[in-house]
Amino acid sequence: MIDVHCHLLPALDDGPRDISDTVAMARQAADDGIDVIVATPHIRDDHDIVIGELETLVAVANQALDQEGVPVRIAQGGEIAAERIESLSAEELRLVSLGVGGSWLLVEPRPGPIDDHLVELVDRLHHRKFHVLVAHPERHAGADFLERVRRLVERGALMQATASHVADGPASPTLLRMAEDGLIHAIASDSHSPTVGRPVMISHGVERLAEIDYLRPHIEWITTDGPAAMLRGEHIKPPFEPVVP
Predict the structure, then answer these.
(1) Fewest beta carbons within 10 Å, which of 3, 148, 157, 205?
(2) Taking the CA atoms of the chain, what radius of gyration do you get in angstroms?
(3) Fold of 2-231
(4) What is the pTM of this model?
């Protein structure tokens, strides 16, 4: 399985403190059956991330995993705040695209319910030859949430659910409704620490998604094949359509 959203590079943003924590997070992933983790540090104004340094940091982290015998590979990426997109060059966007595939961007919506700004941003990025994977849309639910999610998917965006929110917690009913409507395309841990908060684990969320009849035949695509295509920078058409309301 591939975890497309995880904050595991050390001493960056609000992720792990040091490389030993990074290794511990990768061990959690391996125990859960995760083979690849995309390192997605926050690309937003309240975190001083130097995009040009990410390749070296990922290489150092992968070297540490090799030395410790942890069978997980870290891929490069970023979680980009929607309000930062316009300030980044095409090259900077490429360097924080998932797997540096040059196509798929993990975009964090602005605070509050999903609004027209995100829909318009998806369209603008499409013209720049980029595609959007929306990070944890369940955090941005509003009165017309499912309608707005459908509009985003119609424009080619895909939705990433947080595994622990699918498995349990207050967002679970919203996410399970999204799953029933064919509106979840990837699942991720969004972990920040080996000891605090969400672990690097997605299997518990996957088990809940597998209970949904409509998505059960597509679990491997959601956990592996779809994310792998994103990392390669491929154009993606999910093998399932949104359910017509």
Answers:
(1) 148
(2) 17
(3) TIM Barrel (3.20.20)
(4) 0.96
